[in-house]
Amino acid sequence: MDLQHTLVPIALFVCVTYAFKAVLDAIMRYRLLHEPGTEELLRALLAGEAEERRIASLRWGILLIALALGFVVIQAFGWTDVTPGAIGVLAGSFGLGHLTFYAITRRRR
User: Would the pTM of this model clear 0.85, i.e. be above it?
Assistant: First the structure.
């Protein structure tokens, strides 16, 4: 029961923040479409957003795979309790995922 009292306000805050960001993005898109400007600028902005979404998907894919590999290592060693070693393996795998993402995106440019 105590976990619910902590988790629900955090989830509510995250949902409200995401909704606020979505509304601001919609307002910006509306203004870009209805204010005078070049069509080339609008296309460049939309292409940039599409590239950002693709890169974000790449990042999360790499991070989740790295985290899954960390859990596989923990399972292979037979650790069943939360220990500093298990947390270190997960943190290390997450860090390696970030470094892998950095290397891949750096190579693409």
Answer: no
